[in-house]
Design a protein that fits this description.
Layout: H1 3-12, E1 16-19, H2 26-41, E2 46-49, H3 59-62, E3 74-78, E4 99-102, E5 113-116, H4 123-133, H5 140-153, H6 164-173, H7 180-189, H8 193-204, E6 207-209, E7 214-219, H9 221-227, E8 249-257, E9 260-267, H10 273-278, E10 283-284, E11 288-294, H11 297-318
Helix pairs in contact: 2-5, 4-5, 5-6, 5-7
The structure holds manganese (II) ion.
Manganese (II) ion (MN) binds near residues 27, 79, 103, 122 and 123.
Length: about 325
Amino acid sequence: MDFKELKQFLCEHDNYIILTHKSPDGDTLGSAFALCSALRDMGKRCDVINNENLPVRYNFLYDGYYLQEFTAETVVAVDIADEKLFGSRLAKYAGKVDLCIDHHISNTGYAKNTVLDPQASAAALVLFEFFKDQGIPLNDFRAMCLYTGIATDTGCFKFDNTIPRAHLAAAELMKYNIDFSKINRRMFDIKSKERLKIEAMMSEQMEYYFDDRCSVMTLTSEIMSHSGVEPAEFDGLASIPLSVEGVDIGITIKQRHENVFKLSVRTTDAIDASAFCKKFGGGGHIRAAGCEIEGSLDEVKRAVLEQVQNVLKQADENR
Ligand SMILES: [Mn+2]
């Protein structure tokens, strides 16, 4: 679907619900609330539906937000590559999504209509360009939402996916009255005391393999429950393993259930994280991807490290 068709779709439908992905981030939330606000201004009914209670750190996106509550007719997913990312509360919408707006190259095409730009740094960037192209007005709130989405997914304009279009969009969004400095400080600099403790604890138990080119951080249910810290404080640790000098692939293994582990993989340009996770049935971006693996922790680690060995060998051959 191109932008013109998207505009037509939005005009022709009504009674929208917008889904965000589980463990929501600034891109899925920023995109959802920006689109919801635009649709309401178009005279449509629209609600944002989340799998879980929203993280407090993003409350500037949903402060003052209220549900309209009506019978849903049109289901939209933003920033969701795969129905597996709906989470348990939204699982009932699988197979029922009318429109998906996304930027993940791994998008499975689950929606009846898809607007996909795999080059875009964020779903919020796709939306920004759509709004601009089709003359859908921005305002301070929508600008803040979209800026937050782009800043989130580019790691505050630091990641490899920070294309010129991301900066151009940010520059235009900054013309609105948004406190970008406060937003970025809040998203990237501020952490709780508990969080700082967790980071120290995780760094302590980090394991290094293959001449320290691979680092692995493991977060078991036991560690999480014994820490006495809110589970949400354990989100977003995945960038830590790759922050170590010399590491080409940083892996975070987080226990989901007894024998189910979620892997977050971050890589330098030597390794394709998305391809790595695809081997285990997952996907994502070229430098940041994820997957879920079943088995005991030992089995999972063994399988993962074997694959790490393969990709490091490949990387050496390609050098
Ligand atoms: Mn995104």
